[in-house]
Amino acid sequence: MERVPEPELMDDPAQARAYAAADFSEPHDRFVQLFGECFPGVAVGGPVLDLGCGPADIACRFARAHPACTVVGVDGSAAMLEEGRRLLVRQGLAGRITLHRVYLSAETPDPLVPGAPYETVICNSLLHHLADPMVLWTTLRRVAVPGARILVMDLLRPATPARARELVAAYAGEEPEILRRDFHRSLLAAYRPEEVWLQLQEAGLSQLAVQVVSDRHFIVHGQL
Ligand SMILES: C[S@@+](CC[C@H](N)C(=O)[O-])C[C@H]1O[C@@H](n2cnc3c(N)ncnc32)[C@H](O)[C@@H]1O
Asked: Rounded to whole angstroms, how far apart are CA atoms 184 and 165?
């Protein structure tokens, strides 16, 4: 199935509200668990960068799992960051997590993100939004130290439109229409693992591994 791009930023307040209200505990806890599996025995103590942090649910889960770290989340959507700031206050994590509005692109001048370079960079579900996927991989080079720990997770594009509809029914069947629409669009906009592997070769990041971890997710992990 051909890829169908979707808008980059999720900057409609209703869309951000619906996304922030959704229960992503299963994939987001899995993300944190996968970090532990990719980097066993690592106690993350310094600042961690979360690219495309959205409403900061992963930033919060990561911060709770690694009590000695702080997290800097960046996203281009003001609506998402507003949702995120509310979550930080509700969870008592405003002292350890800071959120910044940053539009990630090849044209955005340095310093691209505050506090760079980082020793740990995490990123969930940003890649499929990017008009140019190479922006993610070149961003890693701009914001991370050599040897930095990297964990990126994203959706993988199903083989057929029918399979995309099945996944929406299975994982978002009970969700509001706006979420079902966005999940469907995201599946169509996602990359196949073999496409991501080629992106990594082009970016000179062949040391990072691509691994399918569920019926709809892959991860890219390793050290820069
Ligand atoms: C599907 S959400 C994922 C949010 C969060 N990482 C999570 O897993 O819940 C994708 C996020 O990437 C942001 N985004 C997309 N393109 C971006 C860009 N070029 N620069 C900064 N943020 C971007 C969107 O605004 C949105 O908040």
From this structure: 7
C-alpha 9 to ligand 1 mean position (Å): 6
* CA 124 to ligand 1 centroid distance, Å: 8
Q: What percent of the chain clears pLDDT 70, i.e. is strictly above it?
A: 100
Report the pocket of ligand 1 as residue ranges, CB < 6 Å: 8-10, 52-54, 57-58, 75-77, 80, 103-105, 124-126, 129-130
User: Helices 25-38 and 57-65, interaxial angle, to 10°?
Assistant: 50
pLDDT at res. 3: 97
Mean pLDDT of the chain: 97
The model's pTM: 0.97
Q: Which domains, and CATH codes, for the chain?
A: 13-223 (3.40.50.150)
Residue 126 Cα to ligand 1 midpoint, Å, equals 5
Q: pLDDT tens digits, residue range 87-105?
A: 999 999 999 999 999 999 9
Q: How does strand 217-223 pair with strand 144-155?
A: antiparallel
